[in-house]
UniProtKB/TrEMBL annotation:
Lineage: Eukaryota, Viridiplantae, Streptophyta, Embryophyta, Tracheophyta
Natural source organism: Trapa natans
Record-stated family: Belongs to the HEBP family.
Stored InterPro entries: DUF2358, NTF2-like_dom_sf, Reg_factor_effector_dom_sf, SOUL_heme-bd
PANTHER family, per database record: HEME-BINDING PROTEIN-RELATED (PTHR11220), SOUL HEME-BINDING FAMILY PROTEIN (PTHR11220:SF50)
Name by which UniProt lists this protein: SOUL heme-binding family protein
Length: 454
C-alpha cells in the first residue's frame, strides 16, 4: 500500500510535545498493525474484501498531551464506502491498544505489517454526529470532583467507590496501578507531610478526561525545621467509558519540565525545598499560592493594613524603631498591638531608591478602630492586596543580594509573559539578632498587573 493512500497529517505539524503510535491487534487475523494517527480524528480500516468496513478507534487529546483511545462499535458513516466480502464478514475489532511517547523521533515506527487495502478518515461532521454524544454524564463527574477532592487529606477522605479497582496513578516521582496503591499513597502523604490541598478548578478537557488545577502545601515533619514543600499543577483524571469510574490520575507539576515518571528533575525539585530556614510563629498577611514555578510563586494576597514611615534602602532598618514604637504603645491611646511578620521594606519607584519601611498590623484590626500615630512621620495605610510574584531565599539579605534577586524575578516574569508593576518589596521574617543568618527567611515580592490561572 503506497504512502499516498494514507490521509494522515504528519506528526511534525501537530505542535505537540510527543509523537504517539498505536499497536493494534485484530481478532480476525491475530496479526499486528503499527501506525501513527492524527489526534481528534476517527479512522476506518477497510481490508482486502475479507472484512466489512470497521472503525477501530478514535483518538483525542486532553490537557498537556494526555490522550484517550476509544474503541468504537463500528458506527456507520455516510461518507465511507462499504466493501464487504462474500458471505458473513466479521468486523475487525481492536483487541488491545497501547501507546509510547517517542519525542519527535518517528524513525522507530515500523511499517504496517497487516496488509490493508486503505484507510480513510471520517469527516468532522460525521464524528460530531455519531461519536461526540457522551454516554457518561461528564458534568456530574465534574461536580463530583469539586465536592470530593477537597476531602483528599482530611478524615472523610475521597469516595473510593468512584474509582476502578485498577487505577493508573502517576506523578513525576510516584507510580501505582491499583486502587489500593493509590489510597496508600494518599495515606502516606497524610501521615508524613500533613498536606493542605486547595482545589482551584475542575473542567472537562476530553471525551473521557477531566482536568483539575490545584495547590498542595506540605510540611516534612521528620526534619527538625519542618520545611514547607509546595506543589502546584494539574491532574488529568481519566474515566473508564465502560464503568463510568475514574481509571487514571496523572499529575503534572508547574515547577518542572519533565513530568514523565521517573523524573530526576522532579526529585531535585523536592530536595531543593528542604532548605533550612525558620518562620516565626507569628501572624502574617493572608495569601493563597496559585502557582509555583521553578523560579517564583504567584500568590493572591488579601487586603492588610501597615504602619509605615520613610526608610533608606531595601535592606536597611532606618525607621524600624518608629513603626515598632507604634505597636508597642506609642500611639494616641497607648494601645499595645501584637507583633506580626514579616517586616516589609518597599521600593516605590523603578530605580528602587524611594523606600518605606512597614510593619503589618493584625488582621482583626481595621482603619476605624486603630489608634492614631503619635508622630507625624508615621502613617497607617490599607494595602488592597492582589496578585504578587514572590522569590524566596535564605541568608543575609544585603543590598546587593536583594537587588540581584529583584532583577532575576523581574526577568523571569517578563520571560513568562507576565506584567510586573514598578517597584518591589523585601519581606524579612526573622529577628536577625536572634536567628542564624543561614536560617533567615527572606522574600522579594513584585505586584502583578494581572494574572489568570489556567
Amino acid at each position: 500500500m503506497g504512502k499516498e493512500r494514507y490521509p494522515f497529517v504528519p506528526m511534525k505539524q501537530l505542535k505537540k510535545p510527543e509523537a504517539i503510535f498505536s499497536l493494534v491487534r485484530l481478532y480476525s487475523t491475530g496479526r499486528t498493525a503499527v501506525r501513527n494517527f492524527e489526534f481528534r480524528s476517527t479512522y476506518a480500516f477497510i481490508t482486502n474484501g475479507k472484512h466489512q468496513p470497521t472503525v477501530l478507534w478514535r483518538q483525542d487529546i486532553g490537557d498537556k498531551g494526555s490522550r484517550w483511545s476509544e474503541h468504537l462499535e463500528s458506527p456507520s458513516f455516510p461518507n465511507l464506502p462499504s466493501t464487504p466480502g462474500p458471505g458473513f464478514c466479521r468486523p475487525c475489532v481492536a483487541r488491545a491498544i497501547k501507546r509510547r511517547h517517542q519525542g519527535n523521533n518517528l524513525s522507530n515506527l515500523g511499517p504496517v505489517r497487516l496488509k490493508l487495502k486503505w484507510i480513510q478518515r471520517a469527516s468532522p461532521e460525521d464524528q460530531a454526529e455519531s461519536l461526540l454524544k457522551p454516554t457518561i454524564n461528564m458534568d456530574r463527574l465534574v461536580e463530583f470532583l469539586y465536592d470530593d477532592l477537597p476531602h483528599l487529606f482530611d478524615d472523610q477522605g475521597i469516595d473510593r467507590t468512584a474509582y476502578d479497582e485498577r487505577v493508573k496513578f502517576r506523578d513525576p516521582i510516584t507510580k501505582h496501578d491499583t486502587l489500593s496503591g493509590y489510597l496508600f499513597n494518599i495515606a502516606f502523604l497524610k501521615t508524613v507531610f500533613q498536606p493542605m490541598f486547595y482545589l482551584h478548578s475542575v473542567k472537562q478537557t476530553g471525551p473521557y478526561d477531566i482536568t483539575t488545577r490545584w495547590t498542595m502545601v506540605m510540611k516534612f515533619m521528620p526534619l527538625p525545621w519542618k520545611p514547607e514543600l509546595i506543589f502546584t499543577g494539574t491532574s488529568v483524571m481519566g474515566i473508564n467509558p465502560a464503568t463510568g469510574k475514574f481509571c487514571s490520575h496523572v499529575d503534572y507539576w508547574d515547577s518542572i519540565q519533565n513530568n514523565e515518571y521517573f523524573s530526576l528533575e522532579g526529585l531535585l525539585d523536592v530536595f531543593k525545598q528542604l532548605r533550612i530556614y525558620k518562620t516565626p510563629y507569628l501572624e502574617t498577611p493572608k495569601y493563597q499560592i496559585l502557582k509555583r514555578t521553578s523560579n517564583y510563586e504567584v500568590r493572591r494576597y488579601e487586603p492588610f493594613i501597615v504602619v509605615e514611615t520613610d526608610g533608606d534602602k531595601l535592606s536597611g532598618s532606618k525607621g524600624f524603631n518608629d513603626v515598632a514604637g507604634y505597636i508597642f504603645g506609642k500611639n494616641s491611646t497607648q494601645e499595645k498591638i501584637p507583633m506580626t511578620t514579616p517586616v516589609f521594606t518597599q521600593a516605590l519607584d523603578n530605580k528602587l531608591s524611594k523606600v518605606a519601611i512597614q510593619i503589618v498590623l493584625p488582621l482583626e484590626k481595621d482603619m476605624n478602630n486603630l489608634p492614631d500615630p503619635s508622630q507625624e512621620r508615621i502613617s497607617l495605610r490599607k494595602v488592597q492586596g492582589g496578585m504578587a510574584a514572590v522569590l524566596k531565599f535564605s541568608g543575609n539579605p544585603s543590598e546587593d543580594v536583594v537587588l540581584e534577586k529583584e532583577m532575576k524575578l523581574r526577568k523571569s516574569l517578563e520571560s513568562d509573559g507576565l506584567r510586573p508593576k514598578i517597584g518591589c518589596l523585601l519581606a524579612r521574617y526573622n529577628d536577625p539578632g536572634r536567628t542564624w543568618s543561614f536560617m533567615l527567611r527572606n522574600e522579594v515580592l513584585i505586584w502583578l498587573e494581572e494574572f489568570e490561572l489556567c
